[in-house]
Design a protein that fits this description.
mainly alpha, 4 helices, about 85% helix, about 0% strand
Length: about 80
């Protein structure tokens, strides 16, 4: 019984971590799709959700990766 409870707690911890990391990306995808067919107040609300999701996503890793690719670009053509 104790082992099952520890496993359940460990699962809930990993699930919470995954949800914390994945939720802004899911909101970003859903809000972007919704913006294609909404108008008026609903569109403004989705734009606000999209902008708040963008602020929660850490894009530093992606910018570093792009910079690394751009820096090494001349070496790829030799």
């Amino acid at each position: 019984m104790v082992i099952a409870m520890k496993r359940c707690r460990k699962f809930l911890l990993w699930f919470r971590f995954f949800r914390y990391k994945a939720m802004p990306w899911m909101v970003l995808a859903i809000a972007t799709l919704k913006l294609t067919w909404l108008c008026g107040i609903e569109r403004t609300t989705e734009e606000a959700r999209l902008m708040s999701a963008l602020t929660r996503i850490d894009l530093t890793y992606w910018f570093e990766l792009a910079q690394e690719i751009i820096d090494d670009l001349p070496y790829w053509f030799y």
